[in-house]
Design brief:
The complex is a heterodimer. Chain A is of the alpha+beta class. Helix content of chain A is 40%, strand content 18%. Chain A is built from 7 helices and 5 strands; from the N terminus they run αββαββαααβαα. In chain A, helix 3 packs across helix 5. The longest helix of chain A is centred in the last third of the chain and has 20 residues. In chain B, a hairpin with a 2-residue loop joins strand 1 and strand 2. Classes of the chains: A alpha+beta, B alpha+beta. At the A-B interface, strand 2, helix 2, strand 3, strand 4 and strand 5 of A face strand 2, helix 1, helix 2, strand 3 and strand 4 of B. Strand 5 of chain A pairs antiparallel with strand 3 of chain B, so a sheet runs across the interface.
Chain lengths: 183, 183
């Protein structure tokens, strides 16, 4: 089975990127990420076809004690994961252009990051730090972000129509349905 | 720190795996990818949008990757509801699947009783520094319901213009009755 099919479910793709953070810069990076705007103010709102995404600074592997030997990385890691639509190549390009300078403000804390100006080096660096999923579950992997938003809006539209339509004549109901149709 | 966006919550867990147990995990995830029933049960946990497991034997570093004493198991989930509800439901609905996956990790106490299990997850999870959802107000169930509503509504809309008002009313009422669990 190819890496691509391990990363996908339906048309949905699971991207996991783990990159070493440059020496001494993990707390600055964490503070920068903590301060990014949420909701529509998030820079991730400008990355097309993203359903859910996160950044997390991983300072050290967890030590459970007992028989486990203590592990440590040579550098803390920055985790980026995304659940998005379609293939990786167009997504990485949308990530680069959608984030723009924010990409540099984030991954610029990581060793060897080439910057967002060049499409090929950016994509190559992301791929070099990608970890392949072993098992990916998507509850509605056939639906794109666009599908989800449109379906939710249609459902809302029908609920509102159903309330407004109470007491309408058959002819008025039909007219309201066709005139208000948002599609 | 931001594990929540609207109704969506993120979980990010990385656990060290006992030596030799990664082969078991590979087999388990191979089965998960090829035997439909293994993931079907997750659909019963109707609040998970997307989840993934990833075996990390080398942490990307721009070269051959950094090896630690152990292989690690990465898990992320995107779900609606609270952390507590999620862990409760996971340990009640799929305890054997959880055991089969995480018994390979150091310190895993088993999914039941749920108290020690929650402590274990808390100890091994990383809080996201930034988390984003494209539709933070929608639950998984609503997304799936909206897909059914939109499909039925579009089919009905295609036929509606040719209907007499009385027939439109009858079919509209039938449509609403058929979708009552999805609205």
């Amino acid at each position: 089975m190819s890496d691509t099919s391990k990363n996908t479910s339906g048309q949905a793709y699971s991207l996991t990127v783990l990159a070493p953070i440059s020496s001494g810069r993990s707390s600055d990076l964490a503070a920068y990420l903590d301060d990014l705007g949420s909701g529509e103010a998030s820079p991730l709102a400008r990355v097309p076809s993203t359903h859910f995404a996160r950044w997390a600074v991983l300072d050290a592997p967890v030590f459970e004690g007992g028989m486990q030997r203590r592990d440590s990385w040579s550098a803390p890691r920055l985790l980026f994961t995304s659940n998005f639509d379609g293939a990786l190549a167009p997504y990485l390009e949308g990530l680069r252009t959608g984030l723009g300078a924010i990409a540099d403000a984030v991954w610029g804390h990581c060793a060897g990051y080439p910057g967002h100006e060049g499409a090929a080096p950016f994509a190559a660096w992301m791929r070099a730090h990608q970890v392949t999923s072993s098992l990916f579950f998507a509850a509605y992997g056939e639906q794109t972000v666009e599908d989800v938003l449109r379906n939710l809006a249609l459902r809302q539209w029908l609920m509102e129509l159903a309330i407004d339509a109470q007491g309408m004549s058959d002819a008025d109901l039909k007219a309201a349905f066709l005139e208000r149709w948002p599609g | 720190m931001a594990n929540v966006d609207g109704r969506a919550t993120a979980i990010t867990v990385l656990t060290p795996v006992w030596p030799g147990a990664s082969l078991w995990l590979k087999l388990l995830f191979f089965a998960g990818r090829h035997l439909e029933f293994t993931l079907k049960k997750l659909e019963m946990l109707s609040f998970i949008h997307y989840a993934r497991w990833t075996i990390v034997s080398r942490f990307p570093d721009g070269g051959r990757g950094e090896r630690l004493h152990y292989t690690y198991l990465f898990f992320e989930s995107n779900f609606n509801g609270t952390w507590e509800e999620y862990i409760d439901a996971f340990s009640e609905v799929v305890p054997w699947r959880m055991r089969a996956i995480w018994f390979t990790s150091f310190g895993f106490p088993g999914p039941l009783p749920v108290g020690p299990f929650k402590e274990y997850i808390r100890k091994n999870e990383y809080v996201a520094n930034h988390y984003w959802s494209a539709y933070p107000a929608a639950s998984t169930t609503e997304v799936i319901s909206a897909g059914r509503v939109a499909a039925a509504l579009e089919e009905f809309h295609g036929r509606a213009p040719a209907m007499e008002p009385a027939q439109f009313r009858a079919e509209y009422d039938r449509l609403l009755a058929g979708l009552q669990h999805d609205l």
